[in-house]
Design a protein that fits this description.
The chain is an alpha+beta fold and 259 residues long. It contains 7 helices and 12 strands. The protein is globular.
Length: 259
């Protein structure tokens, strides 16, 4: 069971820690301005391209919170941060103030966002709402490895939907942490999926060394959701925090003198 701690203003991100923040992205249109105000022009343009207002609002909140949290960790104004994107879309900072190598990832789904942060190690996070209209068997055949499909179909019918979303979020978190996204090839690696089974990367191209380089863990994101975290390397501890929309109305102060 994931323990989500109450929000705090001053959080230190050390090299032996990974932080995950959970945010509700459903806010009223009248409260969007503090989130929108910290976004870069390209982020505002992307938000405007969403067809539905709910999707524009959720994206704006998720990106605004990402910038706000990075601003806290790096002690800079959130709006001043600049991102670059890898060949497969993974975001990173163009500059790391103070030489702090902060890595991050975010995921959001139907009103809930997760933001993951680490120093000097890659992280990936995924959250999905458990939806009843997914063709579990069909999507699994297309997106899972043969071993995962076999594990899924061997389960009682009543457990397969939960197992499907276990597998989906763990695979998504891993390909996001790895940085290649879907181009990595979803059949190149196996993850655990059975309900109650600890999250783990079981195989990566039959390379035991590479598989051991990554850790997976399941996150209890809340009723109706499945979530997972992928982290590079070992020797770290996980801390999870809530982020409430009220916080952004009273932002932390930034700059070396708190100005």
């Amino acid at each position: 069971m994931t323990s989500w701690m109450p929000p705090v203003r001053n959080v230190e991100l050390s090299r032996d820690a990974v932080h995950v923040w959970r945010t509700a992205t459903e806010v009223s249109p009248t409260r969007l301005d503090p989130f929108r105000d910290v976004l870069a022009p390209d982020e505002r343009a992307r938000a405007a391209r969403f067809l539905y207002e709910d999707d524009r609002r959720r994206y704006t909140v998720a990106r605004g919170v990402l910038r706000t949290l990075l601003g806290r960790y790096l002690d800079v104004e959130p709006a001043s941060l600049r991102f670059r994107y890898g060949a497969h879309g993974k975001p990173a900072l163009t500059e790391t103030p103070g030489g702090r190598d902060v890595r991050f990832n975010l995921s959001h789904s139907y009103g809930l966002a997760l933001h993951a942060f680490a120093v000097g190690r890659e992280v990936g996070v995924d959250v999905e709402r458990i939806r009843p209209n997914i063709d579990v068997a069909g999507v699994a055949r297309h997106s899972f490895s043969p071993a995962e499909v076999e594990a899924l179909t061997s389960l009682p019918a009543g457990q397969r939907r939960e197992a499907f979303f276990n597998c989906w979020t763990r695979k998504e978190a891993f390909i996001k942490a790895h940085g290649e996204g879907i181009a990595l090839g979803l059949s190149r690696f196996d993850v655990t999926l059975r309900p109650g089974e600890p999250a783990a990367l079981l195989r990566f191209d039959d390379d035991a060394t590479e598989a051991a380089r990554w850790a997976l863990c399941a996150l209890d994101a809340g009723d109706g959701y499945k979530a997972a975290l992928a982290v590079e390397g070992g020797g770290w501890s996980l801390r999870c925090w809530e982020y409430t929309s009220d916080e952004v109305m009273f932002p932390a102060r930034y700059g070396p003198q708190g100005s």
